[in-house]
Amino acid sequence: MIFEEKEAIRLETKITQTSSGGLAVIGAHFEFDDAAFRSAKRQQDIHELRNVQDELPEELEAEKDVNGAGLAMNTVDAISDYGGKCANFLDTGGKATSETVKSSFRIILKDSRVKTIFVNIFGGLTLCDMIAEGIMLAYKDLGIKLPVVVRLRGTNEEKGQKMIAESGLPLLAFDDFEEAAQKVIELARTS
């Protein structure tokens, strides 16, 4: 009932045995579909109960800059198919700006498991030259020491690729997804 009526997507509980031998439920945790709330303001009463004090600051920061996860999830799956393992991922979606790209790098760099950064963009609404600008801004402002592999496809891809190529930064640009993914795995294994 709660899954259909209130669009819950997960319920976790902990069960413990009481001193009298009975069972008690403790620490119930619900998760609700935030896309339903963000896009159509459905279940506002439920989302007003959200306690952000219980959430990781990195997750809250990422929430401001990202949306969707289609290409990101496909990229994660493909990396796994090629024998790699992703420590983290972000999908900036169609609302990305140079600053949100930089912010995404800042978030990813907080994760000590990250050994290589793979920027895989298919820009429809998102302009590849603006993504390139954000990558270069992040590289310069955040002092990135990790290898960064970039694949840009879509609107203004030629301009973005040219910006990356002429930046003078040690960014590794690829046209082919498979080659880029394999390079990411190679770099992560040798880091």
Name the descriptors.
alpha/beta; 3-stranded parallel β-sheet; elongated; 191 residues; 45% helix; single chain
Q: What's the end-to-end separation, in Å?
A: 49 Å
Can you tell me the residue ranges where pLDDT is under 50 for at least 5 consecutive residues? none
Rounded to an integer, what's the Rg over CA atoms? Answer: 20 Å
Helicity level: 40-55%
Q: Assign an overall shape.
A: elongated
| Tally of contiguous helical segments | 9
Estimate the strand proportion. 15-25%
Would you tell me the overall average pLDDT? 83
Q: Secondary structure elements and their pairing?
A:
Layout: H1 2-5, E1 8-17, E2 23-32, H2 34-40, H3 44-47, H4 57-65, H5 70-81, H6 98-109, E3 117-123, H7 128-142, E4 148-154, H8 157-165, E5 171-173, H9 177-190
Parallel strand pairs: 3-4, 4-5
Antiparallel strand pairs: 1-2
What does this structure look like?
By secondary structure, the protein is an alpha/beta fold. Helix content is 45%, strand content 19%. Strands 3-4-5 form a three-stranded parallel β-sheet, with helices on both faces. A two-stranded antiparallel sheet has the order 1-2.
Q: How would you summarize this macromolecular structure in one to three sentences?
A:
The chain is of the alpha/beta class.
